[in-house]
Amino acid sequence: MSTPSILNIQDLHVWFRVYGGVMKVLDGVDFEVNHGEKVGLVGESGCGKTTTMKSILRILPRQAIIPKGKIIFQGHEVLTMKWRELQELRGQKISMIFQDPTAALNPVFTIGEQIKDTIKYSGIAEKDTETIKNIAIKALRDCAMPDPERIMKNYPFQLSGGMRQRVCIAMALATASNLLIADEPTTNLDVTIQDQVLNLIRTLVQEKGTSLILITHSLGVAREMTDRIYVMYAGRIVEMASTQEIFEKPYHPYTRGLLNSIPKLTGEGMMVGIPGHLPNYLNPPSGCRFHPRCDDAMPECRIKKPPFIEVNNGHKVACFLYKG
């Protein structure tokens, strides 16, 4: 008997009301995370990765509309949760590391005030000031922050980008979360700091047994960090498989294009980019949204949305090339 998933997103649609009309960004996203699993969500910037994750926490902007879909977390429907249930979900069960630590931290409060408030309102500890302070210091120490007692007294502007990101990770991991969402956690960091941050997330997730969703446009990062990968294009999942299979035998033309665009350390051949750009969500292409950029497009690709087909054990792809 298979272990029930911790998160199950079914046929999720998200639209945005804008001046020019309605942007139909997410178009039937299906996504699943099992207990203790590390899952990657990859794709170009603007393809809907962050929108998908913000939907889970219900922190989309006011102009967002969710006309269809379900988000099931630990057996409970997130989209119909009442305010108190939602606060418990955000405070105790799901943590999120945002891609810009400068925007995620309030510049007028000290690091200590912000971490302690996160712990206090999560409900994981009694409102004893000393207990909360000790949990905050331990969280910073776990994130390899030097002299956490001093860091607690600093304001965000007094820290480097890497240290601010570590603070955000400490805030996310200070609570007893079941699921950690890391949204481009190494954006704007230099290469050595990126490696340290990713190793930190990997170590802490393994120690706590937390499930992880890693949002990234870097397939190299996804390969190192995840067990399974979802490839997203223009608001749709186009391929899903174990990380090893995605790299060894990609099926979807978009996945192959992403892999061909990675520079090779051996210098063998030139990297090849994907021609064109993401579609306009106000007027997205009919049928398969990738067909205007696809060299393998067929007439039916322009008319019908391709179904998700299992091409191998657990390897699924949304493409008419494999309709059997």
Q: How many β-strand runs?
A: 12
Strand order of the largest sheet: 6-7-8-3-9-10-12-11
Sheet having the most strands = 8 strands, mixed
Termini, distance in Å? 29 Å
Q: What series of H and E elements makes up the topology? A: EEEHEEHEHHHHHEHEHEEHHEE
**Unreliable runs:** none
Outline, from the CA principal axes? globular
Count up the domains. Answer: 1
Helix content: 25-40%
- Supply Rg: 21 Å
CATH superfamily: P-loop containing nucleotide triphosphate hydrolases
CATH topology: Rossmann fold
Structural class: alpha/beta
Overall pLDDT score: 88
- The CATH architecture is 3-Layer(aba) Sandwich
Strand content range: 15-25%
So what's the CATH class?
Answer: Alpha Beta
**So how many helices?**
11
What does this 3D model show about the protein?
This protein is an alpha/beta fold and 324 residues long. It has a single domain (7-322), classed as P-loop containing nucleotide triphosphate hydrolases (Rossmann fold, 3-Layer(aba) Sandwich), CATH 3.40.50.300. It has helices at residues 49-57, 83-93, 101-104, 111-122, 129-142, 148-151, 161-174, 191-208, 219-225, 243-248, 253-260, and strands at 7-18, 21-33, 38-42, 64-73, 76-77, 94-97, 179-183, 211-216, 228-233, 236-242, 308-312, 315-318. It has an 8-stranded mixed β-sheet, sandwiched between helices. A 4-stranded antiparallel β-sheet has the order 2-1-4-5, with helices on one face. It is globular.
